[in-house]
Structure prediction request, 124 residues.
Amino acid sequence: MRVIYVGCILFSKQLLESILYYPMIDLVGLMTKQKSTLNSDYYDLSKVIRNFKIPYKFLKSINDCRVNNWITKIDLDIIFYFGWSSLLKKDILNIPKIGSISIHRGSITNVKYAEAFRAFKIID
Prediction:
């Protein structure tokens, strides 16, 4: 299964480290932030994959058209989206053959995350 991984916090680092050794997951790309003042637990995930020769991009916005262009060129099955502060737009969500998996460790009762949950349900 060909996967692109998106994240920029310690939580996403821990998940990334755990999936790197699953033989059924072919990590074909990573998107992270080079720096962040928004996330108190920010982590540059490119440090985790440097020895694995996995291509990566530093992003400011996940919905930038360059992100869309890069992902479209990859024969992609799933996007793993763990630890990012904005929602993926529908055009990016439609690229993977299978879909996207997102985990947020915060409370869904917060209005911001309730909107994210509702968006997930609509797209699903």
Summary: Helices lie at 10-19, 46-49, 65-72, 90-93, 111-123. The domain at 2-123 is CATH 3.40.50.170 (Rossmann fold).
